[in-house]
Amino acid sequence: MIEASGILVVDDEKDFAHGIARLLRSRFPEERIATANSGAQALDMIREQPFHVMLTDLNMPGMDGMELMRRVLDIAPQTSLVMLTAYGTIESAVETLKLGAYDFLTKPIEPDQLFKVAGKGLERSRLLGENSRLRAIVARQGADGSLVGESLAVRRLKEAVAAVAASEYTVLIRGESGTGKELVARTIHRLSARRDRELVTVNCPAIPDQLLESELFGHVKGAFTGADRDRKGLFLNADRGTLLLDEIGDISLDVQTKLLRCLQEGEIRPVGASRNHAVDVRILASTNQSLEQRMEEHTFREDLYYRLNVLTVQVPPLRDRMEDIPLLAHTFMARSCEEMNACPKEIAPEALAYLCAKPWPGNVRELQNFIRRLAVFASGETVDMAIVRLVESQGGASPGVEASPVSAYKDAKDAVLDGFTRAYVNRLLISTSGNVSEAARISSLSRVALQKMLKRLEINADKYR
Predict the structure, then answer these.
(1) Strand ranges, E, within 189-334
(2) Cα atoms in the Cβ-side hemisphere of radius 13 Å centred on 114
(3) Is the dihedral of CA 294, 295, 298, 300 positive or negative?
(4) How far is 138 from 328, CA to CA, in rounded Å?
(5) Is the residue at 133 inside a domain?
(6) What pLDDT is stored for residue 462 in this prediction?
(7) CA distance 345 to 385
(8) Mean pLDDT, rounded, for 199-217
């Protein structure tokens, strides 16, 4: 499919069409600007290559603007259509907008109004195109739980995951709460030679210390009060497979000692047993804590740390991959609708832009929970800003994440703008492979202004090459 680009001006008065085109070229020099003098000619040009925006006269001989608009929307539904007419009436404007026009301008046309409408039309069509691209990616990847994202940070994460999956070494997965460490572990197992065996997960903080040893290594009948039969532990359940020790930093020193012995010897001894059992288990461990600090505080064994930290995978926080928010939001919305057996829902461009600028201290988990709420409260097929505000008014913060305190208007505005700017610049540099000159051209910023922006945001363009 040929990608849309530029603006098409359609009018049977050639001089008028060329005059509008000259104005548009003066304001949008980087855009492809073309003219057509009939509806039939315009359709031929759009079939050859669609446009982001089409400005068309309403009253033309042969095919009029209304009929042209209907046919264009069949061919290229993401085109932003703007009607131009010297007979601007409320009735014709309303009818045009109902049929799918983006806006309506009356001749004689004021240049400032023309530039404003054309600029918004270009942005709208690009957002619609991006939505379609994201939906296609979501459809391709399906619901297999793959790592979602196209940012530089996620591309590097995927490379690291693929590299460590090919080995049998122990992997320490590090990252803040809510970044997706368990998903990374599942991906490592799925790509490993043990993929046909079981991945067993134990949430270490959820099990009391006095029970964790039995949970991991098992016990024999009579080992302690209530042990009325032998029980296999998770190590034996994961034999020839993979065991994920989730939040390893929370286990006690006593269990750490026994875990270290198991990792060193490749054997486990159930509680109360008189002999060891050999096990073949690959260990993945995750933590959101600084194990180095825990070692300094003498609450985590140094020798266990080095047993676990053979290979390390660092999962980036969402603030370092803001450009992935649109794809994540579309993915979570599709999954939520599927889980609820509901019709697919579309996230409106302005709502998506808001999500991209919003801080997410709870990382991907917070974003996913927020999208689930949007899916529940959106009764129609489109999630717009009204639904976003409704969800926020009912407490949109994820459990365990405190709502951000209300700050001064200027500070709040600066924070939103900074988040948007960072996400935009990251995406810009990815698309240009770190070429600052090309990035400046695409963004319509001067090279100097863009370099100042990069310096302020502490973004190194060389990392994108």
Answers:
(1) 199-203, 242-246, 267-268, 277-278, 282-287, 311-314
(2) 24
(3) positive
(4) 9
(5) no
(6) 79
(7) 14
(8) 88
Shared domain check, 253 and 302: yes
Stretch (H or E) spanning 46: helix 39-48
Tokens of 251: 């286990």
The pLDDT tens digits for 270-298 are 888 878 889 999 999 999 999 999 999 99
Write out the residue range of the structural domain in which residue 348 sits.
319-393
Residue 333 maps to a domain: yes
Rounded distance between C-alpha atoms, residue 205 and residue 211, angstroms = 11
Examine residue 11 and state whether it is found in any structural domain, yes or no. yes
pLDDT at res. 170: 95
Ramachandran quadrant class, 178 (left: phi over 0; alpha: psi -120 to 50; beta: rest):
left
The C-alpha atoms of residue 201 and residue 169 are separated, in whole angstroms, by 17
- Residues 111-142: tens digit of each pLDDT: 999 999 998 888 888 777 766 666 666 655 54
SS (H, E, C) 56-124: EECCCCCCCHHHHHHHHHHHCCCCEEEEEECCCCHHHHHHHHHHCCCEEEECCCCHHHHHHHHHHHHHH
Residues contacting residue 87 through CB under 8 Å, at least 6 positions apart:
58, 59
- Which pTM does this prediction carry? 0.62
CB contact at 8 A, 308 and 259? no
| Both structure tokens of 323 | 């450009």
CB 117 within 8 Å of CB 82:
yes
The domain tally of the chain equals: 4
For residue 301, give both structure tokens: 């064994």
Place of tokens 């033309």: 60
| Residue with token string 């315009």 | 42
pLDDT tens, 356-413?
888 899 999 999 999 999 999 988 888 988 899 888 887 644 444 444 445 555 555 5
From the DSSP assignment, how many helices (H) and strands (E) are in the chain? 19, 14
Q: At a CB cut-off of 8 Å and minimum separation 6, what does 386 contact?
A: none
For residue 350 the two structure tokens come to: 């302005």
**Neighbouring C-alpha atoms within 13 Å toward the C-beta of 404:** 13
Q: Considering 273, 295, 316, which residue would you say is the last residue of a domain?
A: 316
Q: pLDDT for 300-345, tens place per residue?
A: 999 999 999 999 999 999 999 998 998 899 899 988 988 888 888 9
Q: Beta strands 33-36 and 7-10: pairing type?
A: parallel
Q: Which amino acid is at 21?
A: A
User: Mean of the pLDDT values across residues 242-270?
Assistant: 91
| Between 60 and 210, the higher pLDDT residue | 60
CATH of the domain at 312: 3.40.50.300
The dihedrals phi and psi of 365, each to the nearest 5 degrees, come to -65, -40
Residue with the bigger pLDDT between 130 and 266: it is 266
pLDDT at 210: 76
